[in-house]
Amino acid sequence: MTAPIISIQNISKHFGGTRALHEVSFDVMPGELHAICGENGAGKSTLMKILSGVITSYDGELAVDGKTVRFTGTRDAESVGISIIHQELNLVEQLSIAANIFLGREFRSGYLFRNDRAMEDAATELLRSLDCDIPPYKLAGSLRVGDQQLIEIAKALSLNSRILVMDEPTSALTEAEVDRLYRVIAKLRTQGTTILYISHKMDEVFNLSDRITVLRDGQFIGTRNTKETNAAEITKLMVGRDIESLDLGPRNARGQKILEVKNLSLAWPGHARGYRLKDVSLELHRGEVLGIAGLMGAGRTELLECLFGASALAPTGEIILDGQSIAPRHPSEAKKAGLALVTEDRKRLGIFNTMNVGRNITMCSLKDAVRGPMLNQRSERELSESMVSKLRIKTAGLTPPIGSLSGGNQQKCIVGRWLLTHPKVLLLDDPTRGVDVGAKAELYRVIRSLCSEGLGVIVTSSELPELLTLSDRIMVLSEGRKTAEFAIADATQEKIMEAATQSWQSYPSA
Amino acid sequence: MSNESPSLMGRLWSSVEFKLILSWLLVVIATMALDTNHTYWYASADSAQLILRQTVLLGFFALGSAIIIISGGIDLSSGSVIAMSATVFGSLMIVLDPEGFKAGHVSTMAVILGIAGTLLVGAMVGTLHAWLITSVGLPPFVATLATLVGLRSFSRGLTPTLTGGKSQIDFPDASLRDALKDVTTITIVFVVFALILWFLMSRTVIGRHLQAMGGNEQAAKLSGIRTDRLKWLAYVLGAVSASIVGIISFADNGSAKPDIMARGYELNAIAASVIGGCSLQGGIGTIPGTILGCLFLRTIIDAVQKIVGAGADVFEGMIVGIVVVVAVTFSQRGGGKLVGKQYFSNEIGWSVIPTLGILSGLSFLLFFGKREWYAPYQAVVFGLLVIGALVVRAVLESRTKASGQS
């Protein structure tokens, strides 16, 4: 047996009173792809931050190549060959690809002058080794997320990293980009790179990894050889209890039509295609979940924004909600009409980080807590408490800051915020992004039970299995057009993917 | 549902308001001890009145500024709006009652219309800010920077056309002047004003929405909050509160000199808000905190004047600067620790030590230098002592850093 390349020994880390890691120990072998699994808050990211020198104060020991190391920064970690690809990418959007790859290590000619040409050549070389031929002078901000991630990987390669930490690398990628990432990973492995791979997604963990380590509540639970285990065992280790297979029970009876959209189009001035959405029509009935599938850039978010009056330009077409034609131009109008939108980017567009749990929940329904000109604190508390118990939000009361909750519970708070407005139609834009397995199942159940109360739900997701579990019907968007619609009984991943990859150029221009 | 919030004492102890009250008491006690004339002791009523007047005058527009800051914006124009409002108030009285203005007895109707008109002009300036920010799409910094320079210039241009060529408007009516600058009256008006704003911010939906907008504007809009209307309200409150100060200052100063009046006051208002716990990132801050910030700022300026015995206006800027740096350093999360934080051990830290030493020496000379021949030497010695102390600190920091690494 060879010696481990990384040896983690009794590492503990506390943030204030909360325990992020508790005496975690395990080894990583050279050249392996070692997956780290665990629910949100299990301590995966904290551990990876310690490994890559982002967090420098902790208890316990870390050994690389058998030598104890204590990094004082990411530079230290890079010098022994460890690089991290963060879930939220760390690129300077205003700088070029080459400038980003060599940020802080710029090539110079003489002492003072930057050698941009040499950096661009080197960047081209690196990108070519990743089967990517984007010109290196393009601004990082102009790239798609998948390409940006390749830039990060190229940066790691330029550092001669032997150990690459990837924190949920596929969470924002389209299927095609995921395939390319897998090819890059395979290539890196033939070169002997050791990869630590954090992921929620069982299928990719089982596709890629040699061994799987499970963390739960900051503790080491176990390491398994991938070949000798299965998804059910790993999931069980992660949550520490048997989770029922995701059978959400019988689907709800379809009620009367609640929302109809006819020929919705949204212009896109200055773009080759000319439109973000083109002639999208859909119907939604009470008690029904309509899933919207589509790759990144297909127009899922734009469609929901149009319905909710949140698009920058006014869409054309007709929106009929509960028999009334509406054309909201501000979210407040959509809200009044009976629509609710849970946004995709929770941190940026959803939560109010400076406020506590209770105030985040009541944000949209404060008028129900008003007595005279004043906010009545008791009625406000009752409103938020009703949602905490209805949605089973795990929180120590209403006063902790919203940021102290897990992703899934934050998401439930935002769902609760909108339920308090008594909507007729709930729009959920990728509601389980960054939410762990257990909380996902909870959210599915919540959505299903809301439907049984007569709500119509439209949900988008990047994960097809999720849509297949949750929806009664699935419509597929591709490059701004509706390319297919399936009843759930007819829908398969293959059919959906096929519809989602039709390109707009194949349509006659209208 | 269990409510695991910290104890009342714990919350009190960690609140900005409590820390400010403690610091304020310390300043007052220190001034009592250090002031060789013992003004606070022998003339406590006068001292209190002076500080109260200054606090109230700062308080009005600092509260306006605070609401803008809490809602995620910034208002750099308050000083100019004060000067403009004084000018406009004077101009309106001239226009509405020219004879009375000359005779020194402005008619009540002209006064009431003048005040109402001035406040209306304030609201119009606020509306202009809101339009520039929401419709034109300027950053608040730029929009209010433009009015900061623009409105003062406008007032300077307006004054000579109404006064027959003079660059200032003298306050016309002695009894009106006494009424408008009366400390009891303005304090009562301020208390009412502050209560309304406190009520607005902490007890109404609008207040909650303002905080939400300051914390996350995008999320606020997507929650169906009319952010544009809220911005209008915030900037109108900011400008109107400055207009109130303009009216009072006109009486208080006895004249409106648009070229120098209230110059730089906007920064005092921002400083008072920040000292009072408002975050310039928006979303955080309270009305009581801001009032205490004003009280603390004015008291410490007064205290330095008492102890040093020199003109407070000269050192006001220095004091505000130092207080802002110290207050914000200590209110930052995880910042402001005296022990265990590395301040001087890197290149920039070492480079700043001479700057701090020279500043300390010069301040010593300015504050305490009696006109003795040895005063400059004292200052040099003091500056060197400061440098020595900082070097010792830097060396100690470097050592702990080195031992932390091994």
Structure in a nutshell:
The complex is a heterodimer of chains A (510) and B (406). Chain A has 510 residues and is an alpha/beta fold.
Please, could you describe this protein's structure?
Chain A is α/β, with parallel strands linked by helices and 510 residues long. Chain A has 2 domains: 6-239, Rossmann fold; 257-506, 3-Layer(aba) Sandwich (Rossmann fold), CATH 3.40.50.300. Chain A is built from 17 helices and 24 strands. Chain A has a 6-stranded mixed beta sheet, with helices on both faces. In chain A, a hairpin with a 7-residue loop joins strand 13 and strand 14 (275-285). The longest helix of chain A has 16 residues, at 175-190. Chain A is globular and about 70 Å long. Chain A starts with 5 loop residues before the first strand and ends in a 10-residue tail after the last helix. Chain B is an all-alpha fold. Chain B has 2 domains: 11-331, ABC transporter involved in vitamin B12 uptake, BtuC (Orthogonal Bundle), CATH 1.10.3470; 347-405. Helix content of chain B is 77%, strand content 1%. Chain B contains 18 helices and 2 strands. Chain B has a two-stranded antiparallel ribbon. Chain B starts with 7 loop residues before the first helix and ends with a helix. In chain B, 41% of the residues are buried. The model of chain B has no long low-confidence stretch (mean pLDDT 89). The interface between A and B is medium-sized, with 39 and 30 residues.
